[in-house]
Prior knowledge:
Organism: Denticeps clupeoides
Protein name: Ribosomal protein eL8/eL30/eS12/Gadd45 domain-containing protein
Order of helices and strands: HHEHEHEHEHE
Structural class: alpha/beta
Family: Belongs to the GADD45 family.
Shape: globular
Number of domains: 1
Pfam family, one: Ribosomal_L7Ae
Helix content: 40-55%
InterPro entries: GADD45, Ribosomal_eL30-like_sf, Ribosomal_eL8/eL30/eS12/Gad45
CATH architecture: 2-Layer Sandwich
Amino acid sequence: MLLLILVFYLAPGGGSARERMEHVSVALEELLVAARRQGCLTVGVYESAKLMNADPDCVVLCVLACDAEQEGDVALQIHFTLLRAFCCDVDINILRVSGMKRLADVLGESGEARDLHCLLVTNPHAEHLKLDEVGSYCEESRCNNQWVPLLALRDR
């Protein structure tokens, strides 16, 4: 599977940064839907922090989400800083995403006022759809000194 990912990234015309980010965004959406369906998704800052404190080995991906208007929320940014530090310390892949409306739509949370600022994909033994693609993107970003890559989820 890793070979297919590399072929996509290195293929002529398929390697632009924008196209790659779009591809990873779609893979992330599919991963989150699959994880929710499998019962392997923890939603919410408080719930995520609690799980990472109790069993960090079960976490395979941390997604921190906020839009531009929430960037000034000091309490949320403090939570994000602590979660990022913890993820880096225990080697958990981490992504930052914008597009809260799209994230809510993907997770079927459109009508609810639920905390979607932190999502954890858990259970490293489960076969998560697209986990390798998202994980490879995180690793590639770290190699380029971008420790917490940012993806913009767009309405489709």
